[in-house]
Amino acid sequence: MTSEKRLIASFAITVFIFLAEVLGGILSNSLALLSDAGHVLTDAFALGLSMIAARVSRRPSDYRATYGYQRFGLLAAIINGLSLVAISLFIFIESYHRFLAPPQINIAVMLPIAAGGLAGNIVMALILGHGHEDLNVKSAWLHVLGDTLSSVGVIVSGIIIYFTGWIYADPVTGVIIGLIIVTGGVRVVREASGIFLEMVPKGFDVEALARELCALPEVMGVHDIHVWSLAHRRVAFTAHIWVHDRKLSELEPLRNRIEDMLRAMKIHHILLQFECAECEANALYCQVHREEEQHHH
Fold first, then answer.
1. pTM over 0.90
2. How do the domains of the chain map onto residue ranges?
């Protein structure tokens, strides 16, 4: 099943769960169930955006988008993350009011609907479980995963109220669900924003890359190194490489060696510019790194 079909199937399940939990939350007067319904609504929103973004992202590059349209998925991820933060703020405010004046909860209505929601969330988590290679689908999967945990919280609060009568279990669970939601939202927004701002991807060290390039005997200097993400898991690399004066055809083995080294690091969009002019600053740059390597050894 393709990622797009997984998103469509999950969206249909999400809409059904949302309608059931809203109705059940109103009838049972349960904030925990309504909070979970709010999270399910963001799931539906996230999945809908992800479906649109997945379709747009498949468009090939053209004169308007020479790198392609993959960043539409990142835009959807950011919107999804912000919606999670907004929902969590609403839950925190409502939980505060319920701490001041806790209402009566109809457990007979709350528990069966929460159990059905949990079953649906588990199905969606399994459907999307292996389909989050890009941040767009990953953000939708995080929505579903967080909602699965929230459904567990709703059921636990219902059981506590049923056996102990402690009515504050409902707003306490609402706060916990809110924390789960806001944590996932902030994480997705931070990761997607880092890509939009073209920051160095997580797990990459530009200084370490420079040292590895300088360790090659043919390389006399490197400068203007840039490492950024075109989209989730699509890392790009550009650099100017200073070498001894030679024919361009003689540089092909060095180019292939550098590209193989970078591809082993999961970098697939590579642009190298070789310079054969004197560049004392760059030679010194590599010399410094080589001296550091010798000192470490």
1. no
2. 3-196, 206-296
SS3 200: coil
Q: Which residues, in sequence order, are CB contacts of 8 under 8 Å at separation 6+?
A: 51
Residues 6+ apart with CB under 8 A from 237: 209, 225, 226, 227, 262, 267, 269, 270, 271
Asked if residue 74 lies in contact with residue 135, where contact means CB atoms within 8 angstroms, the answer is yes
Amino acid at 131: G
What is the pLDDT, as a whole number, of residue 248?
65
Quickly name the fold that domain 3-196 has.
Alpha-lytic protease prodomain-like (1.20.1510)
Give the three-class secondary structure for 57: helix
| Cα–Cα distance, 111 to 89 (Å, whole number) | 25
| pLDDT tens per residue, range 154-190 | 788 888 888 888 888 878 887 887 887 788 788 878 8
Per-residue DSSP letter, 265: T
- Taking Cα atoms as reference points, which of 133, 180, 128 lies closest to residue 153? 180
Q: Kindly report the backbone phi and psi dihedral angles of residue 202, in degrees, each rounded to the nearest multiple of 5, phi listed first.
A: -60, 135
Class of domain 206-296 as given by CATH: alpha beta
